## 1
Amino acid sequence: MPVGVTLLLVLAVLIYFGLLQRILDRMRLSDKMALAFIGAMAVGTFLPNIPLGSGLSINIGGGLIPIGLAVYLIATADEREEKIRAIVASLLTGLAVYAGGRLLPSEPETMMVDPLIVFSIFAGLIAYIFGRSRRGAFVAGVMGILISDIIYAVGLAGQPAGTAIGGAGVFDAAIISGVIGVALCELVGETREKLQGGTEKADKEGDER
Amino acid sequence: MKVLRLAALLLILFSSTLFPNLCFAEDERSDGYFTVYEEKTGRKIFATARVVSVGDQYLDAQNDLYEIVRVEGDKAYAVFKEKVDLEKALGEIQASDHQSVFAEAGKRTVAIYHTHSDESYVPTDGKASIPYNGGIFKVGQALKKALEEKGINVIHSDRSHDPHDAAAYERSRRTAMELLKQNPDAIIDVHRDAVPAEEYSGEVNGEPLAKVQLVVGRQNPQMKTINNFAWQIKAVADKKYPGLIKGIFYGKGNYNQDLFPRTILVEAGTYTNYRQSAEKGVKILADVIATTLYGEDHQKKATPGSGSTTQIRGEGGGTLKSILGIVTIGAAGLIGYLLISTGGWKELTSKVGRFMSTEFANFLGNARKGKREGDDENSRDQN
């Protein structure tokens, strides 16, 4: 591959990974843990998919590891309420993504933005409204796409449609949804804070790191 | 509060149904298509089943570039923008020496898949849409065979991405990624259009066939690079097989073209063509793709051990623009976010300064310690 094109790919990947690292960082994972997860996702992307039967398979980097991370985030949530909210938000996101897939027009050019991003924004919004936390948004983003895959796979849309869960690895809709979910959380949360007149600076410095 | 949240959710779901052309979700758009006319003269430029919107562009067979300025019902109006000189735009024709850097023939790989796996050809297949196993797979097979005859290794994915709905590209994204793991030189998503047959009826060297249209997604940071690839394919086709390529459509969407710089969406004829004529079209396209990727004399046995493809002309310039674009957007996004999340410019700069001094403390620690005083000033200057 020519140098320029390789450079372009590397740059895009670097920016994306940088964003991913910041996002994970926001969820009280330590810097090193966040990096370890990204590394595992990146490597896992290129490992063969694990077949699950009935046309379904799962990618390690785009499916197994993010799901594990989501489960870990639910398990370590402080309050019972937060856990329940994350799970409910996941279910709702899954249903909304599935419904969106069926209702939205089939050609991407009809929409303002590409379906991939529309689903992620869907997931992010619902996750933000119900999850009310960055962790909740990430969990709902990842699990929402997974749940919609399962709905398709069991054949609610007619014949069962097989797919590789998280098959596009780090670039799969599942992870992109999680990232956009948290980013929306940040943006909406921070903007609202601003409109409300802001909190004390000391508070914000606290979550800078 | 709970009621409010539920209301918000319902609002989101409701607003999602307000997107136009909702009823097309399930079916092939065989019942309608857009015709695009020139704004001033009223002359028909092209027709497409893809949804057109203001800002979309179309490069026609004669390399005239049009931009759509108005959409009214099934009609759209476009203005002439410029005549694109493909050869010139792609830079000087490189010496043939450059093009003779080949890999071993066996290492050359092209990947083919079908996002809309139900697409079929009415006169041959009986229906416009055959779920899970459309006639489009046979067209992909014809392309595969023709490429293999040129000594190119072809991976043709037989995975279906049904139903034909908004999530189809999300599912086919996974297939594309799987194909990319096998390190192809190019990856092609083969579709068919849904406009009347005459739109695609053509002939190359006196042989009747279904023409081919390329589609480039505008919502993609790599659009310049993908566009260059499309131009290159058209330039080769115009030279070797004039009449083969109907045009290039630049639509909203991404079509998974962000995954790899040499990705292209191909419309092989339309649903009212005989499938055999679409197959004829892609057989010729195979030679065009081989020439684009591996140079004029791609049939020759290559020297072992060298790079896998030739540098595609113009690739460098497009790439540089894409890189600059990504950096600019990235920086603008970051500054915008920081401005919102901090109080304003003053707080932002001091925060960035503090961030730099803590985040890079490990390896810049000693160097910075000495001039801690000037730190804030420095970071303020940089921003």
Note: Chain B has three domains: 20-83, 97-319, 342-382.
## 2
Amino acid sequence: MTLDDQLRRHDPARDVPDDLARSPRAMATLARVTATGPSATPLRPVRRTHAARYALVAVVAVAGLVVAPILGADDAAFATWDADPRPATAQEAARYAKECAGWTRVPLGDYQPQVVEVRGSWVMTYLASADGEAQCLRSTAPSPDFVDGENESMSGPLAETPPADGLATIGVLKTSGGLSSTQFMVAGKAGSKVTGVVFEAQGRRVRATVTNGRFTAWWPQREPDNLWGLLMDETGFNGSTNPRVSITLSDGTSHTERIRDYDVNY
Amino acid sequence: MAETREQYEQVYAHTYADLVRFVIRRGHPPDQAEDLAAEAFTVAWQRLSDLPGELGEARAWLFGITRHLLLAQRRSDSRGQALSVRIAGQAALDGQTLEHDDLVATSVDLANAWARLSAPHQEALSLSVWEGLTGAQAARVLGISPVAFRIRLSRARGLLRHHLGTPSDAAAPTARSEKGFV
């Protein structure tokens, strides 16, 4: 018996039947997916070339703000999601920073809290070190399934330093585990001339927090409802959202790209 | 359009179970795996014009989409772009080749050896052995060159054999950097 033969005998997915595509669930999925016309526009992003380089200038910190009201049917879990965040108190920030470091298993000394913001019953914490970042989202409201409040977290390497007018991120995280609904989290580095970052996500304009050369934002997924086409339009190749992002620079000019153009993984 | 839709449905029927298996091997329970497969097929429908015409290539293309979905969910892997792959703790019992006692011992050894592999090496073996892709197809799924995949797969096999033959505290052969081949 060869090594490959032995491995084949240990396939953890061997119990999946070959005719699974004919199951009611699979058939329903096919019907749902093909109920709308396929996109006529190829979605493969065109990688942006950062030809322009600018001299370094001071970084301006801007507190996060969502500037447009939420439209459509949002998940009930995010009924308290506040369009106008408030900064956490010092006591809250210390607590949530420690908690986030624990969840993501990063050393709190090396990782310092960059942003701790509160939207209704939701707290977003962003930690960063010289070469890494961690982002946590948690509800402060207990629920039957999450007696300590729902939460989601991520950590990873800090992206490369972007050009002065751009961003660098390791992607938009679409969360679906640990929380009763889906939301999107994004963080990374902002170029030295970047003073404002606003995401256009599912009909909303979500202003990111930009501070100390970093940016971070999150938003709940809008239930598709009759916005299915819009949802499809903003779902990128890897299934995470690929919203437009408007970047304002210190000279007052702004430009709009797709966030995927700044994803270092693409 | 009708022809393309028919092609999509044919690909769906042919690869749905394979996509669910692909996700399960990467650590998700079957129910979540079907959710991921549905998401991948949604993306594929959205990008219908990119759907490869040949069934095997379309299957590999869908694996690539699914892998990106999984990576997007698991951004916390600080090593970046690799997904660890599970192995069954026990072999399928078809009674063909080994005595039962031998099989159990082999399963334990193999599971231990597999666990010592890095995620990129587990992925390489999975794509080749379980997903059954050609080297070129697997390379496209991983976004690396066919040469790099061949090297990675060769190292994965070598390391697995090494781990099967040495106790867990023995030094494994040094894994040379694959940078430059990727």
Note: Chain B has two domains: 2-73, 100-165.
## 3
Amino acid sequence: MSASLFIEQLLNGVQFGVMLFLISAGLTLVFGIMNLINLAHGALYMTGAFLAAAFIKITGNFFLAAVLAMALTALTGAAMEWIVLRKFYGRDHLDQVLATFGLILVFNDLVRLIWGVVPVQLRLPGPFSGSVPLMLDVQYPAFRLLILAVGLLVALGLYLVVVHTRIGMWIRAGASNRPMASALGVDVGLVFSLVFAAGAALAGLAGLMAGAISSVQVGMGEPVLILALVVTVIGGIGSIRGAFIAALMIGIVDTFGRVLLPPALGSMVIFMLMAVILAFRPKGLFPVHA
Amino acid sequence: MQAAAPQPRPLLEVKGLQKRFSGIVATNNLSLDVRAGETHALIGPNGAGKTTLIAQLQGELSPDAGEIWLNGRDITREPAHRRAHLGIARSFQITSVFPQFTVLANVALAVQAQAGHGFKFFREAWKDPALTAPAREAIERIGLSHRAETHAEDLSHGERRQLELAMALAMKPKLLLLDEPMAGMGRQDGQRMTKILQGLKQTYAILIVEHDMDAVFALADRISVLVAGAAIATGTADSIRNDPAVKAAYLGHGS
Amino acid sequence: MPDISKHAASPPAAVLAASWPILVLLAALALVPALSAAVDNPFLIRLFTRVVIFAIVAAALNFVLGFGALVSLMHAAFFGIGAYVVAIFAFHDFDGSPLWIFPGTSNLAVTIPLAVVLTGLAAALTGVVSLRTSGAYFIMITLAFNQMLFYFFVALQKYGGDDGLQILSNLDFAGLNISKRVTFFYVSLGVLAASLLFFGRLVNSRFGVILRAAAQNERRVIALGISPLRYKLAAFVISGAVTGLAGALWATGQQFVSPSDLSWVRSADFVVMAVLGGMARVWGPVLGALVIVLLEALLPGLTLYWQLPFGLIVILIVVYLQGGLADLFGKMRPAAGGGH
């Protein structure tokens, strides 16, 4: 592998990693705080992508459309939480898995009903549609660099919010010890709704960025959801820091695995990584719950 | 002239046990022993570390330092399920039974656990007299025979405590660890339980955690007082009653 | 037969009383070929072959789900492995090329046991990792393993990759032609009946009792002196192996396998079948398989957007139908308890 190819793949891996982080952040927090497995989180990723496509058509402006799509995905997430998921907080994981599985089917068909089955292409914003030269004669797509930058910024922002603000303190308290947080006067229900909506917005953001690289289609959320679950368990359920590190790890390992290994092995390598990590640390790298 | 027979080793010896949870000392350099045939009571204010100690003896928690010996054998590093086979049976502070099984099935499982042979795939376990006969015997001993076919979740609280004890007995233990066997019981149930335990006293070494002082004084040969994870006094009922340190630290708390 | 409330004395009559609905259902299924011939509609027998094979999987899954409180989302992968073993050996038989050092074969007397063993092995390997965790971690890890095996078969270009693999040789069972529609249906039905009998014995054995006890109160099981991990692992392997057997039948019946047989959605479908049918009984999931397979066959005929009502039905089942359809024949305590 030449140095330039290595750099290009490394960038691809990190870029994939930050996208996985955007999806996993909401998943891991929702899980950590409310002990809720939400398989339908990937449906929000898909929703974000389709909404972006629709708003680009209306506004003609990629960035405006992205902001609108994120806002509406957040609302969709809040509605999902309000109408269905609230009923499942106290229920066992099996019920949660089945109900959110049902939600996936419903979302997929709703999207099919509204936007049809043909994959949609998102037009890249003008300044970002080309490539930019990096060092060592590496040409790299500008939009991927944008994703990388946005992803890292969001990660940094999330870190600051979670670690340094009052809301973040509530979130951490809720994730590590819910009864204690309630006893301290934190409105856990409200915190959860906010986290859920924010997590939905981030999943939507990831979806629309992924849609801009490849295409927007029904069912796009499910493979990604499973990767996000892998990130969540490797990082430790409820840990933002764990999710970030695990997401980068998965992004990079997956990218290089596909380049360097035979296909049957390359597609399995991240799952093997997960198995190895869990064999030694059954609660993930950064366990939150005691 | 009196070459007194050497004191036999106690059944259970605990030496310098230490356990902390993120800065809080739950067990503080604790040593105590339980002799064969002895009933040894642990008393102390809430949060003194009694249940933590029981959990370390049973193997659910592992101590940070110190040693636990059973029958002259160091079991400090043995996992919980091995200690059960070595003769330690625990009844839990919060009732811990199998709610979907009948009383008989609960106790039969304890018999089965002791007998081994879990990998028998086809014979119906609850029709196997090798399991049900000893189970019925333990149930009888604890006075629950009339409820043998009742599901554990349908039992009253007091009956569930009895079931818990029957399961412990079915394990044919050498040492019974009883964590507040009378917790949550009414006066009548409590007295009945005291009677049952008095009947067991002869057969088993017992380490009992209990708040009901009448029961403690009626049952215990020796009493240890735990405060903040440390044993501040050990002795007979009378010596404990009159111990100034105990009065200050424990009885003074208004219990 | 696994009616635990009547265990104290369960003479044959009581066993019969507790399991009459499944006996009736199996008898009714046995009439399907005759019905299919009478109305001259071969689709019926295909449809009910599907019901029977999925019922085997749902019952096998329920052994760990309903009796062990282990929510596995990788049973489609076990199903697929069993199917691919049959298909790949048949491929090499047709092709004449060896599979590494082994010759290909279309003899099911060889490939079906092989499918069972290899699936059991896969269950052992994945179980060792996933069973060290519990609860939500277990669910997510089994889902991840399902996806891993899915991608594995997608990547096997030699065996059709994404497009799947057609079985072109003539499958037989030691010379017997069992892939004829009617014969094959009865073979599958026989396997279903045998599986139910097998699991019915298992759940009341010493082994089964430990599994159920660990599902209710793992801490207590350990305090009694039993380390539950190996029992759970054994149960997982047994469940996986029987699922592999069903997969091998599936490949035989369809003469075709593809990665979509391993889709995680199908894993979730199996769980829906077990829950809908009723997890407290060994035979409950058979009812679930019947209803779900029929729904999946009928709904697409009514509307293009059939997944929408199907998804809503799944949600409603979870919200309102706690005991499953089998509870219509008398309420039953959960076999494993609220352990999950």
Note: Chains B and A do not touch (no CB pair under 8 Å).
## 4
Amino acid sequence: MREKLVVVGNGMAGIRTVEELIERTPDLYDIVVFGSEPYGNYNRILLSPVLAGEKKIEDIILNDDAWYADNGIVLHKGKAIVRIDRRNRCVVTADGLVETYDRLLIATGSLPIMLPIPGRDLAGVMAFRDIGDVEGMLDAAAHYKTAVVIGGGLLGLEAANGLMKKGMQVTVVHLMDVLMERQLDAEAAGLLRKSLEDRGMRFVMGARTEALIGDGGRVAGVRLADGHTLPAELVVMAIGIKPNVELARRAGVHCDRGIVVDDTMLSYDGRIYAVGECAQHRGAVYGLVAPLFEQAKVCANHLARKAFASYKGSITSTKLKVTGVDLFSAGEFSGGPGDEDIVMKDAKAGVYRRLVLRDNRIVGAVLYGDAIDGAWYFKHMRSGTDVSDMRRQLIFGETNLGDSGHGGGDVVAKMAADAEVCGCNGVCKGAIVDAIAQKRLFTLDDVRSHTKASSSCGSCTGLVEQILASTLGSDYSIAPKEKPMCGCTDHAHDVVRKTIVQNQLHSIRAVMDFLEWKRPDGCHACRPALNYYLVCAWPGEYEDDYQSRFINERAHANIQKDGTYSVVPRMWGGLTTSSELRAIADVADRYAIPTVKVTGGQRIDLLGVPKDRLRDVWADLNAAGMISGAAYAKGLRTVKTCVGAEWCRFGTQDSTGLGVKLEKMCWGSWTPHKVKLAVSGCPRNCAEATIKDLGIICVESGYEIQIGGNGGVKVRATELLTKVATEEEALEITGAYMQLYREQARYLERTAHWIERVGLSYVKTRIVDDPDGRRALHERFLHSQKFAQFDPWAERVAEPGFDREFNSMKELA
Amino acid sequence: MNDWVDIGVIGDIPRLGARAVRAAETKIAVFRTDDDRLFALEDKCPHRSGPLSQGIVHGCRVTCPLHNLVIDLQSGEAVAPDEGRVGRFDVRLVGDRIQLDLPGARGRHLELA
């Protein structure tokens, strides 16, 4: 017999939890949901755009009746629960319906705070909280002219903006001297106020509302404490919200400001969970959506009896959903002792940025006028990144540091709907905005899977995040600090890796069983990652699972758009010989290879080889002494060199010779993503070493070792790791660096992103400052290379039954 | 009436893998799941014609090697939110022999035999 889960509250928190739960265990519970509003579950935070006429109510419905029916969930709409009977484990509705429960989830959200002043019961006085309020406001806007919004916080300003767009004359009355004083400092608030005044909004600051004046039962004015009276045919109170906990409190569930829950979202009653705005966790009550999503995941994990997730609280960020106002705020900025401020202000352009640093970490950020980097600062704030390495450029944002793919500038707002955002998959801005609205997307991953935008090369990720943020406002949930590997598990990459080592897991099956993978044999995202982690953890012991490798690594060649392959033999340091070239030419003739191309990595690419001819091509290239160039691998690709001291009149060292030595040391290794090296013989840098994963610049006195460059999606120049005097040192440092990257980076994380995540200082500490550690890393690299340096072409050619994998199974006439 | 054509033994296809069968103009991908179930689809992704036989097989699905479209092996339909479908063929195991239902292939099969 299935247990029964009763959910009180049909809002975003409760239903998100239910969604997460049925994704984990669809059959564990019979689920019954009670909602006091007469609607399905809707996106409350998009009420502002509905008010402003930018969206319709049907656009913001998250789950319609069919969804509940399809998932076997009983929904009681418009039925408020009035009593919880914990002794008999049941809930009772206002009209006497009784429902028993085994587990109860309270997600009653919050209630608007209404000022206890005379006149608050007059017609035309309302809060801004639900669809009913919005309908009331829209109705008033159609019939009346003047409105007063009490409260100059986020909600109040959004309400005022919406009413103004509906043609009303709006005055905002705010108790404090600074708008949105909990999110903004005086400087940013001043800019915001000016911008809103320019649009026609009026403000009365530092004003206490004393009474509402009526006329024939409807509100007609607002009287302030200083005696002034403002005309008002509509009054919206938006002074704040309070957790809606009366129901729980009356049932004797321990409440403070909210229902007190532990790190598993469980209340003091072992059968009652609480999530969302009604829950109080570690003293904090949240009024935004992002924390609610995190809570829902944790709660669902425990309801599903997985019992490993824990909620540690959230750092929240705010974005004002007023079209044309670009504003972002997160963390603390009141400035405590020891806090440092970095401020940038361009008053004419209306741009203001302030970062608050404590112990070299960002603890607060206020951005006005150009909030493009909000998500990026927030990411570093949440992960507690030590920003000393980038402090000098920090205030200018991500664009100036060259992380993965920010377009730069607040381009999104100005983009036309038909402007292309994702160049790989041809997705324009309008398609993304529509998908977010119509398919109710909240996260980058949602957008990726529904529109394909940002799912290929990732260079438009920054743009897509901006579109999400500007479409959803504070609803946008920035990817959590530690994302799950994929939909098959709730565990993040780092946890999985650690588990593999600590628990001596030696196969993909063992990992999946141990960590309770949700799908029996994973997916195309997690299997290659697991295979790599096992290859890296158990050199010489783990047997590579070819079926978990992408086709290129299975076929030792690169698949092309027509299903043929390209073949690239290794050319050590970019050197070749006449006999090698002759052999390549013969291969090209013999197999009628349509395209022969010189690559950027100083090698030759043979394109258009059908799969069943690969064997012959390889055999011939092998016979001429060439091996696979691994141009298909998440592993070492090329070592690009210039001619160096041997020939060049500027050359300072034997860059070609060092390149060959590096390639001989590193070839065959498997890495989290591809690795490209280069050696330049002098600072003129003809081998373009400063955009490689590791580049060496030779100088008269030795070798400068540069790391973390990237010449692809987003050009990123390398940073200097160290300078050494001899080739031997350069080789040891390279080996240690390769191994550190292999052991620490997440699968598909290039060195540039890895270094930006862990910081250059960290890499220096491990490789430059710690000679013993460096030697150990280098030795581990050389050890693993013993099991990796085999030419896969020669192996396949020599393998009996090889044809089986590479030929058609059967040719039918 | 089915036209069953023998295409080989189950050992010819690795678990969580696939092989291609060429039948005149058509390429057919034959998949083997981890629990030894067999499926056959046209070897042509509905998105940009990628060879599905080269994709990673997981559960009862395959991911196209070109752009990661995921196709359900049983129905031939793309897994939501992706859209599209490919033609499917019946396939069965008789002993350890794999037989593919190729309508109209009977005559050719006799020729082959």
Note: The first helix of chain A runs from residue 12 to 24.
